[in-house]
Design brief:
heterotrimer; A alpha/beta; B mainly alpha; C mainly alpha; A: 39% helix; B: 84% helix
Chain lengths: 269, 257, 276
């Protein structure tokens, strides 16, 4: 469904150029949940902006259903990490969710129904007339998710969406994301630096190298669904996969203590 | 703590009253020609401004003020948006803008008189020529300060340029535009007064200067008091409007703290 | 007073992509283009030449003036009024501001008075100034001082009150007395605000000085402009207006430069309440 071929992104020109993304090739199938994980500062966000067409690639291409992406297509929605900066503070929750629908030119009733349905899906229907800044961080990110859902995307790109939330809220939102993905049958590409989160959520994990970013390994996550914060994370397979991804990421970071740390964590787990 | 707060509130209310009372007491026995008793000024104020000269002086003054102010805003905001969005236009216009806005506004009055005569056109022109700059520059800054993430979000959702301007960029820049409009408002009052002092046959500024020239000192004082009240009230009204329009801004800012 | 927002505009211009030469030239080219356009529309008579002399003639008149002693006397008179008014306003504004800002009681007591006096258009006091001080330097100074004190005062109060309470507590924990705390903590951290206030005050003082010269005929550039107008010498009038603009621009540039240098250690403060 989504094909990334030979993607490269460099900033600057000539000898001063720095490569953020080196050479990336991978595919995302329909209804798949793919997590992209990499060491910090490896250009994950740059990658996501290239995928969505917000940033033109220097080389290579991104295709959705075979069509070249040059601007964000109508069947793709984004959720950013900084919810407080991607929600419009002068619009109420309802207006925020309804705003992108202008592009779709729906009938009024239909647009209204979409907004209602997606606010219900994230349990925020009672807060429709609040302003985003009157809500907690987790609720704000739910507004951003509702906005993406109302847009009825086939594919949802999420850029470290829960990174600035506390651990409990984060767990709740992870489960919410999994539930919504089933309900709405949407394909998800989820960028994160949190290995636990990636393994917990994904069907496949794409592990990246540091800058200039390449694909290091694509790890299948054959854990049973539906997943559960306690049961899934207690599975021996989960620990094994987690350790595997952890080693991939840490090894390339060139941290000699990484192997030992992983080992230690494994034995203590 | 509450006792202290009550004390502070008391100070805030009582001290200004005390100051006015002191002025009244000090000037009551004043025989100075220049500083007539406060009671005399107030009586003159009532006789002059309630509502004898409202139609002949206050209304023309206010009309010039509002016309100039509205026109300046109507010009400055769109131009500011355009300059804010286009780095090339901004670079090209920067020296011209810097120079024009550095001209002390009253220096433009002789120019206005030469080209437009001494009528209302000239006065409105002067107000516009001065009030445009703070609004323009603040709009440019406001537009440039719009969070990139907000623009990116609307781009990602395929919001067209028109909606992006009216629903994203303009509201996001609005707090700063208002800051410029506040500055422009006090400038507008000042320029209204100056232009009426230099060349006019009516208006509050004309009245005050004329009173001084004819040594009608209580009248002059009453005009000064009126101008003070006018400046204060306009500022107050502006504050109310701003608070209403930017309700989301205050809330968002205090939430961010 | 007039928008306090040029600095970022200029910083942007010099800071980004310095390598490409044309950017630096764009502004110059635009100025030349505007001047050429004006010259053209006056030359072909699109704008009446009676009121709009050729731009080149205006600049010729300006150059003539630059070699004229009388012109420099007028510049000196204007600058004298500006300097005294601005100096007095700075001293009064900073001193009062720090005192008021560091006392909760004083701040409450004076707030309404300041808020009431500040928006009063200072030009309303012109007649009073003429009555008391006549039509000379003293009137200019009185008006400029009155108008320019407010921005300094308000910024100083704001700056002192915005001092980080943790910094104050730290100083107190180390046994600093009230005065020492004020001098070594409150004063330095209010500097960015005060500097912004000073820049606004400088522009305000110049406006009031020129106004006084224009309205009450105190000697200086403003009066010269008016004389040129009533004498029908429009080239001279435009030349003097341009000169006044350059003076304002020069003063502003000086303050922007100082401000940028001083604020380097405190960049977050620059928005403050500058717009007022």
């Amino acid at each position: 469904m989504l094909e990334v071929t030979g993607l490269n992104k460099a900033y600057g020109h000539g000898p001063n150029a720095t490569e953020a993304v080196g050479d990336l090739t991978f595919k995302v199938e329909r209804s798949e949940f793919v997590c992209i994980v990499g060491p910090s500062g490896c250009g994950k966000t740059t990658l996501l902006r290239c995928l969505s067409g917000l940033l033109p690639a220097t080389r290579g291409e991104v295709r959705l259903h075979g069509e070249l992406i040059t601007r964000t297509p109508e069947n793709m929605a984004l959720v950013f990490q900084e919810y407080s900066r991607s929600l419009f503070p002068w619009m109420t929750v309802r207006e925020n969710v309804a705003f992108p629908l202008r592009r779709k030119k729906h009938a009024k009733d239909h647009a209204r129904a979409l907004v209602d349905r997606s606010l219900e899906a994230v349990h925020l229907d009672e807060f429709a007339s609040h302003y985003p800044w009157q809500l907690s961080g987790g609720m704000q990110q739910r507004v951003a998710i509702a906005r993406a859902l109302a847009y009825e995307p086939e594919i949802l790109l999420m850029d470290e969406p829960f990174a600035s939330l506390d651990a409990q809220t984060r767990g709740d939102l992870e489960d919410l994301t999994l539930r919504l993905r089933n309900e709405f049958g949407v394909t998800v590409v989820f960028v994160t630096h949190d290995i636990d989160e990636a393994v917990y959520l994904a069907d496949r994990v794409v592990a990246l190298t540091p800058r200039p970013t390449r694909v290091q390994e694509i790890v299948d996550i054959p854990l049973p669904r539906p997943r559960d914060q306690l049961a899934t994370k207690e599975l021996p397979d989960f620990a094994r996969l987690r350790a595997h991804v952890y080693r991939l990421i840490k090894r390339v970071e060139g941290d000699p203590a990484a192997g030992a740390a992983t080992h230690h964590e494994l034995t203590s787990a | 703590m509450t006792a202290r707060r009550a004390f502070l509130l008391g100070l805030e209310v009582l001290v200004p009253i005390a100051v006015v009372a002191l002025w009244a007491a000090w000037s009551a026995s004043s025989t100075s020609f220049y500083f007539p008793p406060l009671s005399k000024i107030l009586t003159t104020f009532k006789d002059t401004w309630l509502f004898d000269r409202v139609g002949s002086d206050v209304v023309p003054s206010l009309l010039r003020l509002l016309a100039g102010y509205a026109l300046a805003t109507a010009i400055a905001v769109p131009v500011g948006l355009a300059l804010g969005l286009s780095p090339a236009a901004r670079r090209a216009s920067a020296p011209i803008v810097e120079f024009l806005r550095a001209i002390p506004p009253p220096a433009l009055i002789p120019f206005g008189i030469v080209v437009m005569g001494v009528g209302n056109t000239m006065k409105v022109f002067i107000i516009v020529a001065v009030c445009v700059w703070p609004v323009l520059l603040n709009t440019v800054d406001g537009v440039r300060g719009v969070d990139a993430q907000l623009i990116e979000t609307s781009r990602a959702y395929g919001i067209g340029m028109r909606d992006r301007l009216s629903s994203v960029i303009l509201p996001a820049a609005l707090p700063q535009i208002f800051a410029g409009m506040r500055t422009a408002l006090s400038l507008a009052v000042i320029l209204m007064v100056i232009s009426e002092m230099v060349a006019s046959t009516n208006g509050i500024g004309y009245f005050v200067l004329e009173s001084q020239r004819t040594f009608a000192i209580p009248e002059m004082w009453s005009g000064i008091v009126l101008l003070g009240l006018l400046g204060y009230v306009l500022n107050l009204i502006f504050g109310v409007v701003e608070a209403r329009v930017l309700r989301w801004h205050r809330g968002a800012r205090s939430a961010a703290r | 007073m007039a928008a306090a927002t040029t600095a970022p505009l200029m910083a942007q211009r010099t800071g980004r992509r310095r390598l490409r030469v044309p950017h630096a030239l764009q502004g110059v080219l635009a100025v030349l283009a505007v001047l050429a356009l004006l010259e053209l529309v006056t030359a072909i008579g699109f704008l009446p030449q009676r009121h709009f002399p050729l731009v080149s003639d205006d600049f010729r008149a300006l150059v003539e003036q630059l070699g004229d002693g009388g012109f420099w006397t007028q510049v000196g008179q204007t600058l004298e009024g500006w300097a005294i008014g601005f100096g007095l306003a700075s001293v009064i504004g900073i001193a009062l501001g720090i005192v008021i800002g560091s006392s909760e009681a004083l701040h409450s007591a004076t707030r309404v008075i300041v808020e009431f006096l500040r928006p009063i258009p200072s030009v309303a006091l012109i007649p009073l100034a003429v009555l008391i001080y006549g039509t000379g330097l003293q009137s200019k100074v009185f008006l400029a001082t009155f108008a320019a004190t407010w921005p300094v005062l308000v910024q100083a109060i704001y700056g002192v009150r915005d001092v980080d309470p943790v910094a104050m507590d730290t100083a107190r924990a180390f046994g600093f007395g009230r005065l020492a705390r004020m001098r070594s903590v409150a004063l330095p951290s209010s500097v960015p605000y005060v500097v912004t206030g000073l820049r606004i005050a400088s522009a305000t003082a110049l406006i009031l000085v020129v106004t006084a010269e224009l309205v009450i005929g105190a000697p200086g550039l403003g009066q010269a402009i008016n004389v040129a107008r009533s004498g029908g010498d429009f080239e001279l009038m435009y030349a003097l207006i341009i000169a006044t603009g350059l003076l304002g621009w020069g003063l502003n540039t000086v303050f922007v430069t100082i401000e940028r240098r001083l604020l380097r250690w405190h960049p977050s403060q620059r928005l403050a309440e500058a717009g007022r």
